[in-house]
């Protein structure tokens, strides 16, 4: 077969770990033991999130996003992160505002004037992808293959600012985009239920939750409920993430706040609007000080900054409860 012809290629830097190197890490350094991994968010982030890491998170700021873990990353003032902004809104804005992030692979960056200003000023460097293409990259990372072919990004300006390569498909002769595999250093994922070993269940809509966990070197799970392992054994097909992918389990009721979690509580739209209205560094630093730096933990944040009354209202607003538990 003739050499594959390269037709076009993007200009972006890529975070790429050769599949054999990732496989060696999992084999030699990943703790796959069936042991109690329950800890608080402070210990989990201190132990498993390092300065300079590539960080991925799942799912959305509006729904089941890992907000308590993101706040802890900011509280510990992690630096020089390269993050994957996939189906997210608030996380990238807060991490950029706190000076935690240098680079962002963008599926969906977020909105509001603040993050746009940070990008224009060069405070953070962004690389264009799409929610679909970064998901393909995680799938390739989970499968242990170096890249995955797709038709996503073809014919767009986005491709020019991505790290994808367009080649002539040797079978059809048509253009196809090759997406490099993505293996994050660490991922943070909020779920409805987990046991202390890391088995986890996700109910409702999701995108590549399992693939994100499988592709990552280290995985921190936060859960609305910690349940007995017997529940996973009774219904093993309901398990979204198996324990051997997970390094830490954090019990975090309302862990997605100000977003919602299906079957538990609704999004706090008033707090959400407060965040999206931030325009200046002064306003951002005031928000960070009031809601993140001035409290020691997620529990203290809920108690002092949100309150039981508001949390009860969000539970009552969640109209769809049946079918999620």
Automatic annotation (TrEMBL):
Stated name of the protein: Acyl CoA:acetate/3-ketoacid CoA transferase, alpha subunit
Listed SUPFAM superfamilies: NagB/RpiA/CoA transferase-like
Species of origin: Archaeoglobus sulfaticallidus PM70-1
One Pfam family it belongs to: CoA_trans
PANTHER family in UniProt: ACETATE COA-TRANSFERASE YDIF, CHOLESTEROL RING-CLEAVING HYDROLASE IPDB SUBUNIT
Keywords recorded for this protein, A-Z: Transferase
Gene3D superfamilies: 3.30.30.40, Glutaconate Coenzyme A-transferase (3.40.1080.10)
Domain of life (superkingdom): Archaea
Signal sequence coordinates: none
InterPro entries for the chain: CoA_trans_fam_I, NagB/RpiA_transferase-like
Record GO terms (molecular function): CoA-transferase activity
